[in-house]
Amino acid sequence: MVASGRxxxxxxxxxxxxxxxxxxxxxxxxxxxxxLILVLxxxxxxxxxxxxxxxxxxxxxxxxxxxxxxxxxxRPFDAFCELSKTYGNMFQVFYGxxxxxxxxxxxxxxxxxxxxxxxxxxxxxxxxxWIVSKGHxxxxxxxxxxxxxxxxxxxxLRDFGMGKRxxxxxxIEEIQYLKGEFDKFEGKxxxxxxxxxxxxxxxxxxxxxxxxFEYTDPRFTxxxxxxxxNIQISGSASMMLxxxxxxxxxxxxxxxxxxxxxxxxxxxxxxxxxxxxxxxxPQDRRGFVDSFLxxxxxxxxxxxxxxxxxxxxxxxxxxxxxxxxxxTLRWGLMLMAKYPHIQDRVQDEIDGVIGRRQPVVDDRxxxxxxxxxxxxxxxLANIVPMSLPHKTSCDVHFNGYFIKKGTPVIPLxxxxxxxxxxxxxxxxxxxxxxxxxxxxxxxxxxxxPFSAGRRICxxxxxxxxxxxxxxxxxxxxxxxxxxxxxxGDDLDLKGIVGVTLNPSPHxxxxxxxx
Length: 514
Known about the structure:
single chain, alpha+beta, CATH 1.10.630.10, 2 domains, 5-stranded mixed sheet, two-stranded antiparallel sheet, 11 strands
């Protein structure tokens, strides 16, 4: 009721007035009527503006192009941070004719996503996102479909051990396979991207499908590679232009690649799902897909449990469960090679507390410095700098401004994770952000890598467990260094921009510790 009270239903009666006046006008006074309409519209717009409230500030847009010429489409989040210095923590920009609200800083973002959670809960499903799931699934859907799919996914993922002991066993098993891949390089330099992504993807795959895949299985590896490619391309400048001007689609190779990858992945997912369907046993659910299929068979035809939602939801879980955690872990390993003195402290702590046995989740509270390093990696890596775009679900007055229903909203997470009012050294790798004066781990309110509010990442508990177990186990077993002739200074922290922010291309040496 509070949310609906805030959502303003603004009456606009100017058209009724105009129609009444036109009844008195003859054909000979049409020009005068048009002038009168313009005057009335101008007056009513002005009175409405005063009644509803003023709009947020922002740079003046050009006709048709909006602010596109002044925004850096390759790193838009940096451009937004600069604009906030002029326009404050809440401003609007125009992507072509499309008005977008940008929220900057911890206090503003938290207020919108948490205190006004209902008003800012919807997803802005841009054309590039529509390609992926056409309004189905969890990530890019709204309304009852989104509520039902999210509720069902949360419930069933917990049933299959997400963030619990069942997941811990799966992760520890997968760590051994990943170590086997690292050992193949015998201390020589290699790109960590594929082995790390395959290992992390196997965790969500075992929860979704009920089993892991071999790293040599081309069906699996190609699905992971195509998914990661789409996540990168979807955040490119060309796809931002497509989202602004969809008519450009036929001319953009980036869109063709995304469509091709989506179709291929859907075909592979369909084969996997059909295989599970053939051996489905309602008394022995192997994973999320089984739960969905059982519900699909028992529900009526007009329910949300249909094939399109199954494919979209599985695709969402596979993508989100692979890219974000894998990307963060690769940032962590690269940062250890860049800052060997921090790697020394992590390994000293692990050696002193755990020794050579396998790390487990319960060790986290005994490893405050290691935990702080993992959290600081998430903060500085800043892998989803603009979050996924939200949209207002209704008219709302917020921070003294009027925001219309359906306005796209960018909660600028990079401005939260690097807010100078919240972090002592926002642009540096400084694990002490998460340590008190006694060296004990402390939580920070402005730590928001999983976003917040209604759209907070539903896999947060699983991702946190994976990061701790993978990172701690790998640091226990390996010393990570730059290749010969490459110094830590050569490792670029700017990253490669997509929907997520990936480490710049690099290679590391994983040297077995004695």
